[in-house]
Amino acid sequence: MDSHDLRRAGYQDVPDEAGGRAGRSWWDANAREYVEEHGDFLGEDDFCWGPEGLREVDAQLLGPTQSLVGRRVLEVGAGAAQCGRWLASRGVDVVSTDVSARMLAEGAAMNRRTGRAVPLVQADARALPFEDSSVDVAFSAYGAIPFVPDAIAVHTEVARVLRPGGRWVFSVTHPVRWAFPDDPSVRGLTATRSYFDRRPYAETDETGVVTYAEYHRTVGDHVRDVVAAGLTLVDLVEPEWPASNGETWGGWSPVRGTVLPGTAIFVCRA
Ligand SMILES: C[S@@+](CC[C@H](N)C(=O)[O-])C[C@H]1O[C@@H](n2cnc3c(N)ncnc32)[C@H](O)[C@@H]1O
């Protein structure tokens, strides 16, 4: 790909502030469409870590779910808070946060439909409205981190609100995937970009305003970010694509999932 193609495809430098701001406006504008497209796969009251379909009921990455009862759990970049709702349905004291009012409105509608009222709080993950050391476990399934230029600010905030020894688990697109086209077919199996090219995937409108930005970090970048925030990395989980999952989600698909990793889940301790 030449630089013109990359620009058209959207890999381009954008001002950090504009990229971070787009994280809210894009999700506000696309909340309904996103839930319509992925709602069936995610469920309204289910905890899914990513397109492979790994569910917390099986993975127990937050620890045994029963052990969370009586502890304070925080969901970051919750979207419609399907994960938080699943925990609440098991008696866990959880609060779900997201920067997008429209995603939280989708969550409020799900609260009404399911009869499970998980508390919803609007907050940027880089400025959490919670006291220091007030949370036992924090998590995010593909929330916030991919959409901010400064992921370290998210980890630092999470480290601040976590009690010493508390757990922080977050899933993101597997960094290796960024070297491949976002194509669920065999065309998505040939690397066309450098894994080391950190330019975000960004979309701009006709006036040049950044409307969407998604940030690539290598595995090492993620490790350095959590360590710089004072956290300890305990595990890195790379879910395999199960034969039972025939779902295509954007560039994720069974064709690619059997060959390439799609999701990385970082398990950290404060
Ligand atoms: C892919 S969704 C993940 C939510 C949910 N787990 C799901 O799978 O639908 C990404 C979420 O991150 C949120 N987000 C983006 N930037 C954020 C930020 N700076 N702080 C908090 N949430 C943010 C978006 O509003 C969106 O709801």
From TrEMBL:
Residues 1-10 have a biased composition (Basic and acidic residues). InterPro entries: Methyltransf_25, SAM-dependent_MTases_sf. Residues 1-22 are annotated as: Disordered. Gene3D superfamilies: Vaccinia Virus protein VP39. Keywords: Methyltransferase, Transferase. One of its GO terms (molecular function) is methyltransferase activity. Residues 73-166 form the Methyltransferase domain. The keyword ATP-binding does not apply. GO terms for biological process: methylation. It holds the Pfam family Methyltransf_25. PANTHER family: METHYLTRANSFERASE. This is Class I SAM-dependent methyltransferase.
